[in-house]
Design brief:
single chain; 2 domains; six-stranded parallel sheet; 340 residues; globular; eight-stranded mixed sheet
Length: 340
């Protein structure tokens, strides 16, 4: 059986990683690491994890791990990735957002070129059963030629927006954006916090892809509500339109209209989320055993983050960009100056 560990125990996502192991057959959680001693032992005890560490490097040396879930702020993730690579840990699942801005994105890009460790980003929604079913309908051509994707999230780009951007690229796989235009508003979420989740309060993105698909992205205070609830974290959604119909997914509902046949229903997001987390983790072991590349692999995530950076540049400079255009530095500072 494979041995897995978690670094960072704060927040609901660490709990999601741990609870997913109820549904994972090939691995077990054997260790956890956190600098927050007051949270470390209660977490380990609650999830029956045998070993706990305040130093993840010591954990790497002692536990001979196969997979590490990294649930930390983005400013220390590259340090952890390098340590995992040095320790010959084969698999890492990295929490989103992948990075903060251009500088650490470029460092991650260099890391990806030389490292041995297989890294995936924890966009577990990709593997939630209902969303995966809808994605497969699109992949199988049931919508005909896809023309438009509309996606949004109630929280800002750093908290939920990367989920939303990944959803757009997931429903149009292998496509490359050829034009990226963004608009941003509000600077409260750009204030410095321990989580280092910096983003404008609201972001609007418009894309054209080389396969003819166009997409609209809304994250933050400009996003539509999907249920009658003011909590911002409950409103992720995506709709995909093609020549033969459409599919729609939200955290609580789904709908398909294919060749005139309408079907719809509800689901329990939290139950789906645990199953999605488990499936994401199982796919890591498929990558290890069968070299079946994970759809949320680091290179795919780096392209998504590159798109995000071009959205920020577009909002700041009032221009449309492509991936070929040179990235600018210190974008978070520039957004703070412009929006606060």
């Amino acid at each position: 059986m494979y041995k897995a560990a978690i670094i960072g125990v704060s927040g609901g996502r660490a709990k999601g990683h741990a609870e997913a192991y109820q549904h994972i057959k090939r691995a077990g959680l054997v260790a956890v690491s956190s600098r927050q001693k007051d949270k470390l032992e209660p977490f380990a005890k609650h999830y029956n994890i045998a070993a706990s560490y305040t130093d993840y490097r010591e954990m790497f040396a002692r536990e001979k791990l196969d997979l590490v879930h990294v649930n930390t702020p983005p400013d220390i993730r590259l340090e952890i990735l390098r340590a995992a690579d040095t320790a010959n840990i084969p698999l890492v699942v990295l929490e989103k957002p992948l990075a903060i801005q251009t500088e650490d994105y470029l460092e991650l890009l260099d890391f990806a070129k030389t490292s041995k460790v297989k890294v995936a980003i924890n966009h577990q929604l990709h593997f939630q059963p209902r969303r995966a079913l809808l994605q497969n309908l699109v992949y199988d051509g049931k919508l005909g030629d896809v023309s438009f994707i509309d996606a949004s999230s109630g929280m800002n780009m750093a908290y939920q927006g990367t989920h939303t951007l990944q959803a757009i690229t997931a429903f149009s796989p292998e496509a490359k954006p050829i034009s990226i235009m963004g608009q941003a508003s509000g600077g409260e979420s750009l204030a410095d916090t321990p989580k280092k989740h910096f983003a404008p309060d609201a972001l609007l993105g418009s894309f054209m892809f080389d396969n003819g698909v166009s997409a609209l992205l809304r994250c933050g205070s400009n996003a539509p509500k999907v249920i009658n609830d003011e909590r911002l974290n409950l409103h992720k959604r995506i709709s995909v339109y093609g020549s033969q119909g459409h599919v729609h997914w939200s955290m609580w509902h789904w709908e398909t209209l294919i060749k005139g046949k309408l079907e719809s229903g509800k689901h329990d997001y939290f139950a789906e989320d645990i199953l999605g987390q488990a499936a994401l983790t199982e796919a890591m072991f498929d990558w290890l055993e069968f070299d079946k590349r994970h759809p949320l692999n680091l290179n795919a995530a780096l392209q998504d983050f590159h798109i995000l950076l071009k959205l920020y540049m577009s909002a700041l400079n009032h221009k449309i960009y492509s991936l070929e255009d040179k990235l600018e530095s210190q974008l978070i500072d520039a957004l703070r100056t412009a929006l606060t």
